[in-house]
């Protein structure tokens, strides 16, 4: 299980945080490729996109971290 985000969506990229967006797009690819390879063996490879979460880096605007 990987933790990705909306910033990794190619359709949603519009600038602002290029390093974050490129790293999340890479993580999405790194999730999809083994998912396709391992599906026949019954192995699930997936990613979640939790949305904005309040962190030191992101600020207090999101959901609190549990």
What does this structure look like?
One of its GO terms (molecular function) is oxidoreductase activity. Pfam families: adh_short_C2. By secondary structure, the protein is mainly alpha-helical. Helices cover about 30% and strands about 5% of the residues.
Task: Please give a handful of descriptors for the protein shown.
NAD(P)-bd_dom_sf, oxidoreductase activity, 66 residues, SDR_fam, Fungal_SecMetab_SDRs
Order of helices and strands: EHE
Oligomer: single chain
Tell me, briefly, the overall form: flat
- From the alpha-carbon coordinates, what is the Rg to the nearest angstrom? 14 Å
Uncertain ranges: none
Q: Can you tell me the number of structural domains?
A: 1
Strand content: 5-15%
Mean pLDDT: 85
The number of helical segments is 1
Approximately how much helix is present in the residues? 25-40%
The chain-level structural class is mainly alpha
Output the strand order for the largest sheet.
1-2
Total strands: the figure is 2
């Amino acid at each position: 299980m990987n933790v990705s985000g909306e910033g990794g969506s190619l359709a949603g990229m519009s600038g602002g945080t290029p390093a974050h967006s490129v790293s999340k797009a890479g993580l999405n690819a790194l999730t999809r490729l083994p998912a396709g390879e391992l599906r026949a063996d019954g192995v699930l490879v997936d990613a979640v996109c939790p949305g904005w979460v309040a962190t030191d880096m992101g600020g207090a605007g999101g959901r609190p971290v549990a």
